[in-house]
Amino acid sequence: MTAPALELRRLGKTFVLGRGRARQEVQAVRDVDLVLPSGGILGLVGESGSGKTTTAMLALRLTDPTSGQILLEGADITHLPPAALRAHRRRMQVIFQDSYSALDPMFTLARSVAEPLMIHGIGTARERHEAAEGWLERVGLRGYGARYPHELSGGQRQRVAIARALILRPSVLIADEPTSALDVSVKAQIINLLMDLQQEMNLSILFVSHDLSVVRSLTDRLAVMWHGRIVEEAPTEAIFAAARHPYTQALLDAIPAHHPRQRRQRSFQSRTQIEAAVPRIPAADLALPAVPGPLPQLATLSSGHRAEVIVT
After folding, report:
1. Residue 267 lies in a domain
2. Residue 266 above 70 pLDDT?
3. Distance CA 28, CA 49 (A)
4. What confidence tens digit (pLDDT) does each residue in 123-159 have?
5. pLDDT digit string, tens, across residues 267-298
């Protein structure tokens, strides 16, 4: 059986703020379990501050976890030292939200795209330059290699970021809000480009976003984060058709409708209201066994559909 491209097991991250009596711990990510299948696209959604980006940075080992495991194609990379981790970096790359900050303003585009090859000692300088020019052409920027980031639009810079992330031909790509700063037409172009490259390279993509309409058009499965934990996960269309957790339902209600008659009833709820609305389900009605208790727990409701519920 083929190992998942990326697997997170009970992943947690606690940040310590302040010192002495002012010291406090903030649990940004709590017991996150996620599986990104080989060749699949998993969406990770939630409001700002829900822990999406922290989870992505943990998966990349750009931030060290407090607890849990990170498995990349079956290999545990959770506690690997930097030297041992370098070999795995080639197989997992990232597209950051702010493409302007992610690109060195002093580098030409060709140099920026070729930099991963240089870091990993791949090819000669000429071969790296030719590969960079080829990838720029592949993302629709033919002849742009001698330009600088400030000469491009936001959408063009994001295309450069995609070329740089994929020049190493990774198996896993983590896209952290790559379309959030783009207008609608450019956003659609970037999504189409990612879809084409994913099919061509059989990429496994973890797509982080707060925009459910974008995620719906791109992903196979969807995981919803709230206050640092996963509260629902299912095939994307199953989430849109029958969301079970009240927070997921509130996110869906907030999607702008194309026609007034298609508008959903707005359900702006506080944290207390959402926690009070968590469904109660008898253990006998679950697809997999769970221990009844007074606190919400992530349970399997049906095949491939998990949600946080109170098991009775």
Report:
1. no
2. no
3. 8
4. 999 999 999 999 999 999 999 999 999 999 999 999 9
5. 667 888 898 899 999 999 999 989 999 999 99
Q: Report whether pLDDT(203) > 60.
A: yes
From the list 32, 28, 33, 34, the residue with the least C-alpha distance to 14 is 28
> Is residue 159 in a domain?
yes
For residue 25, is it within any domain?
yes
Work out how many domains the chain is built from and give that number.
Answer: 1
Q: Are 2 and 38 in contact (CB under 8 A)?
A: yes
Query: What's the N-to-C CA distance of the chain in angstroms?
Result: 35
Structural domain for 150, as ranges: 6-239
Place of tokens 């679950």: 286
In SS3 terms, the chain reads as: CCCCCEEEEEEEEEEEECCHHHCEEEEEEEEEEEEECCCCEEEEECCCCCCHHHHHHHHCCCCCCCEEEEEECCEECCCCCHHHHHHHHCCEEEECCCHHHHCCCCCCHHHHHHHHHHHCCCCCHHHHHHHHHHHHHHCCCCCCCCCCHHHCCHHHHHHHHHHHHHCCCCCEEEEECCCCCCCHHHHHHHHHHHHHHHHHHCCEEEEEECCHHHHHHHCCEEEEEECCEEEEEEEHHHHHHHCCCHHHHHHHHCCCCCCHHHCCCCCCCCHHHHHHCCCEECHHHCCCCCCCCCCCEEEEEECCEEEEEEEC
**Would residue 1 count as lying in a domain?**
no
- Other C-beta atoms lying within 10 Å of the C-beta of residue 76: 12
The two tokens of residue 181 are 């700063």
CATH number of the domain that 97 lies in? 3.40.50.300
Q: What is the mean pLDDT of residues 83-109?
A: 93
Reported as a single tens digit per residue, the pLDDT across 26-78 is 999 999 999 999 999 999 999 999 999 999 999 999 999 999 999 999 999 99
Give the pLDDT score at 294. 92
What is the pLDDT at residue 278? Answer: 92
Cα gap 226→248, rounded to integer Å: 9
